[in-house]
Write a structure and sequence with these properties.
By secondary structure, the chain is α+β, with helices and mostly antiparallel strands. It is 41% helix and 23% strand. It has 15 helices and 19 strands. The chain has helices spanning 16-19, 61-64, 66-96, 100-112, 121-131, 136-146, 148-192, 194-197, 204-249, 264-277, 313-320, 340-364, 384-391, 488-492, 504-507, and strands spanning 3-6, 10-14, 25-31, 37-46, 49-58, 367-378, 396-400, 403-410, 413-419, 426-432, 453-459, 464-471, 480-487, 497-499, 513-515, 521-527, 531-537, 542-547, 553-557. Strands 7, 8, 9, 10, 14 and 15 form a six-stranded mixed sheet that branches. Strands 3-4-5-6 form a four-stranded antiparallel sheet. A four-stranded antiparallel sheet has the order 11-12-13-16. The chain is elongated.
C-alpha cells in the first residue's frame, strides 16, 4: 500500500485503491515537487507475462488545500499524542490497582458455603458488631484464615493502591481530558469553516460525536474518583474495626493509637459497608461479593456493581429543565453501565472515525492522468509476487529538474524513461556499466562478453542515486562487488529518443545502450562479499549492503574523509 502522510503523522490518503487495478502490484511511487501528481510503476499479470505500467494520479486537491492540511495534521498530532498519553495513564492506573480484595472475596465465599441456609456473612458480622461475640466457626475463620496480620496488610495495600489511582486520575488524566477538549474544539471550529475545510471532508457531526464521547468519559472519570473516595473511607474504617475484633478474639493487646470503641459515624460507615459490599451477589456473577468496586472501572467489560447515589446538582438541573441532548449537543450524558476503559476505547474509535473521513474524501478526489504499458516482462516461476521481489531492487523512480525518470531492467541493460508533463513527450533510452576506471586497481577485468551487473538502485538524494554493482574479476566464480554514486545529471544527458507511449515496447530492442561507467563517483569496492541488495540514507550519509543470503549487513560511510593527524 502507498500512503500519503502530512507532517509524518496525519494519513491524508492511500493510493492502493487507485493504482492496484486488475490485481496489480505497485512497485515504486514518486510525488511531483508541486504535489500535483503521484506517479507509480505497476506490474500487472497478463497470462504468463507481466505488464509493467506507468500510472499517474492527479492529486491537485493536496496543493490546493495544503495550508488547511497542515493545520489539520497539527491538530491530529496533538490529539494522537494526548490519546497515547491517556492510554499510558490508564495502563499505569491498572498496574497500581491491587487485587488483594479478590483473594479475600474467595475466602468469604468459601466460608459462606458453610453457613446454614438463610444466613449470610453480612448477618454474621452484623451480629458480631452488635453483640461483640462470634460463633466458634466465625471466630475460627477470622483468627485462623483471615488473621490480624493479613487484614492489616490488605487495608494498607488498598489504601496505597487507591491513593495512587486517584493521583493518576487527578494529576494526569483530568489534565489530558481538558487539553483534548480544547484541541477537539479547535477541530470543530475548522469543520464549521466549510469554505476552507469542507473540501477536505471534515465532518462537524463526527467531531461533535468525539466531543460527546469525551464528555461521557470525563463523567465516568469523576464517578470513579467518587467511588475511590467512598471506598477509601469505608474500607479503612471496616478493616480497622475487623483488625481490632480479631485482636480481641485472639486475646491480644491493642496497639497504641487504636480505639476499642467506634464513634457513631464510624459505626454507621461499617454498617453501610456490610449492607452494600457483603450482601450476596447473583449466582451468575464470578465475584460473589462486592468488596472491590474500583478495579471494575479499569477493565474492558461492563460494571458489575453500580452503587446507587443521590442525584447530583447537574442531574437535578437536567431533570428539571426542558433541555434535551438531541437539540443541545453540549449536554454530556453519563453511561452508568460501561467501565472507564470501555468508554476510552469508544472515544478512541470515534476520533479514528472522524479523522478517517478526510482521508476517504481526499483519495476519492484523485483521478487518473496517465496509464500506459512501458515493458513486457517474463514472470519468475509464473508468479507475480516473485517477479515483484526480483524487480524492486533494480527499479527506480525519481524526479529531476521537473522531469520524471523511471528505471527498469531490460535484458542486460537498465532502461530509462523520462517525461515532464504527463500529456507531453516521452523520452526513452538504455544504459549499462562497462568501464569503471576507479576499480582498475581492485582486480576489475574488462571483458567484451561480461558487463557489470546492476543489482540495486536506490535514491540517495534529489540529484544522486546509488547503485550496487557486481563486476567481473580474474576469478570468474567469485565476482566482486562495489557501491557507487551516479548523478542524475549523467542520466539526463544521455541521448534519449522521443517515443510514443504505445510504441515503447516495440522500440526497446532498437534503441542503443550507453555506458555510464565513467560518470560513477565515490566508488567503494566491497570485494567478493556476495552482496544482494542496497539501502542508503542521504541525510545520514550511510549505505547498508545486505548479503545475498540475508544473514549479514554491512554499513558504510558514503562521504568518509581521511582523518587528520
Amino acid at each position: 500500500r502507498t500512503h500519503i502522510c502530512v507532517s509524518g503523522v496525519f494519513l491524508a490518503a492511500s493510493t492502493a485503491d487507485n493504482l492496484q487495478q486488475d490485481a496489480g502490484h505497485v512497485l515504486l511511487t514518486c510525488m511531483s515537487d508541486d504535489l500535483q501528481s503521484v506517479s507509480a510503476t505497476v506490474l500487472r499479470k497478463d497470462g504468463s507475462e507481466g505488464k509493467l505500467h506507468l500510472s499517474t494520479l492527479n492529486t491537485s486537491l493536496i496543493p490546493a488545500r495544503s495550508c488547511e492540511l497542515q493545520h489539520l495534521a497539527l491538530q491530529f498530532g496533538h490529539v494522537g499524542s494526548l490519546l497515547e498519553y491517556m492510554s499510558a495513564t490508564l495502563k499505569a492506573m491498572h498496574e497500581a490497582w491491587e487485587d488483594v480484595l479478590l483473594m479475600m472475596d474467595m475466602k468469604l465465599a468459601r466460608y459462606s458455603s458453610t453457613l446454614p441456609e438463610g444466613r449470610t456473612v453480612s448477618d454474621e458480622l452484623l451480629v458480631l458488631l452488635a453483640c461483640g461475640r462470634a460463633r466458634p466457626e466465625l471466630q475460627s475463620f477470622l483468627v485462623e484464615e483471615l488473621t490480624a496480620k493479613g487484614v492489616k496488610r490488605i487495608g494498607l495495600s488498598l489504601e496505597l493502591s487507591y491513593s495512587s489511582i486517584r493521583k493518576y486520575a487527578t494529576n494526569y488524566l483530568n489534565s489530558a481530558i481538558q487539553q483534548l477538549q480544547y484541541h477537539l474544539g479547535e477541530v470543530l471550529g475548522m469543520a464549521r469553516w466549510y469554505d476552507r475545510f469542507g473540501a477536505l471532508g471534515l465532518s462537524e457531526k463526527a467531531i461533535q460525536d468525539c466531543i460527546n464521547s469525551l464528555g461521557t468519559f470525563a463523567l465516568k472519570c469523576q464517578e470513579m474518583m467518587l467511588a475511590i473516595d467512598d471506598s477509601l473511607q469505608s474500607i479503612k474504617t471496616f478493616f480497622t474495626w475487623l483488625y481490632v475484633v480479631i485482636l480481641k478474639l485472639s486475646d491480644e493487646k491493642l496497639p497504641n493509637g487504636l480505639k476499642e470503641h467506634m464513634s457513631p459515624k464510624e459505626l454507621k460507615c461499617v454498617i453501610e459497608f456490610l449492607r452494600k459490599r457483603l450482601s450476596k451477589a447473583s449466582e451468575s456473577d464470578t465475584q460473589t461479593f462486592n468488596l472491590e468496586v474500583v478495579g471494575q472501572y479499569l477493565t474492558d467489560e461492563d460494571l458489575k456493581y453500580v452503587e446507587e447515589r443521590p442525584p447530583s446538582l447537574w442531574e437535578k438541573l437536567m431533570s428539571e429543565s426542558n433541555l434535551k441532548p438531541e437539540t443541545e449537543p453540549w449536554l454530556f450524558l453519563p453511561n452508568p453501565q460501561k467501565s472507564l476503559l470501555q468508554l476510552f476505547h469508544a472515544l478512541h474509535k470515534s476520533i479514528d472515525t472522524a479523522f478517517t473521513l478526510p482521508k476517504m474524501y481526499i483519495q476519492g478526489s484523485f483521478s487518473h492522468d496517465l496509464d500506459f504499458e512501458i515493458a513486457s516482462l517474463k514472470l519468475k516461476d509464473g508468479s507475480l509476487s516473485e517477479t515483484v521481489r526480483r524487480l524492486q531492487p533494480v527499479m527506480g523512480l525519481f524526479v529531476f529538474k521537473d522531469r520524471h525518470y523511471i528505471f527498469f531492467p531490460v535484458a542486460n541493460d537498465i532502461a530509462v524513461m523520462s517525461f515532464g508533463d504527463p500529456s507531453g513527450e516521452l523520452k526513452f533510452g538504455k544504459f549499462h556499466v562497462f568501464d569503471i576506471p576507479p576499480l582498475d586497481d581492485h582486480g576489475f577485468v574488462k571483458s567484451d562478453q561480461r558487463r557489470c551487473q546492476i543489482l540495486s538502485l536506490q535514491c540517495y538524494s534529489g540529484e544522486v542515486f546509488s547503485v550496487l554493482l557486481q563486476y567481473p574479476t580474474n576469478d570468474r566464480e567469485n565476482p566482486s562487488y562495489a557501491v557507487a554514486q551516479l548523478p542524475l545529471e549523467a542520466v539526463a544527458s544521455l541521448p534519449l529518443e522521443t517515443v510514443m507511449s504505445h510504441d515503447i515496447i516495440n522500440r526497446t530492442a532498437s534503441i542503443s545502450s550507453e555506458d555510464i561507467g565513467a560518470s560513477l563517483t565515490e566508488v567503494l569496492s566491497l570485494g567478493p562479499s556476495k552482496s544482494g541488495s542496497l539501502a542508503v540514507s542521504g541525510s545520514r550519509k550511510l549505505a547498508a549492503v545486505l548479503s545475498s543470503n540475508g544473514k549479514k549487513v554491512r554499513l558504510f560511510d558514503v562521504d568518509a574523509e581521511d582523518e587528520e593527524d
